[in-house]
Amino acid sequence: MRNPWYIVPGILLGLYIGIFQKDIAAILTPFGNLYLELLKMCVLPLLFSAITMSVGRLIGSQDANKYVKRILIVFSMGLIGVSLIGVIVTLLTNPGGNLDDSSLTALGIIVNKSQLDLEVSLTGEIIEEVVEPEINLISFLFNLVPENIFASLSEGNALEILFFAIVFGVAMGYLKESYKEEVFNILETIFKASKS
Hints:
Layout: H1 7-20, H2 22-60, H3 64-93, H4 101-112, E1 116-120, E2 126-130, H5 137-144, H6 149-155, H7 158-173, H8 177-195
Antiparallel strand pairs: 1-2
Helix pairs in contact: 2-7, 2-8
């Protein structure tokens, strides 16, 4: 069942059962939840092994500089392209241009709140909730570095695991070939087992 064309009939069958056969959907719900939990169980080993192995092999290759330059160029061009599309769409559509003064004032109040998180209900009521202090870029970057990678793995903190996988992959890339191949083989085994 590796053929992607099985997905479309599965989605259609799931929609049909969910909409028209609610009793069957109730019976199948525990199996669906179990399947989703199994998928979530495989995400972190897949993420760690794929990122570590890819970065390590990229750094260890002879053409690493060429690949890194290409990746940075493509990433930068993509970022610039998406930003330009956002600016152009904003200029063409003028979002918020048709709002009256009272709506703009209410929107300004919502946007300018710094220590409060506002929830706007469908009735137009503004509900204020106290949230944690604002996180800036520097504290965000420091929070990416895990104090203990095993704690991050057990808590499922994907950003900390991703950061560790990148750093570990870079370190693996600079090791001697004889040392890193064994680890890469183990990581590839974990990757293939998580993917299948």
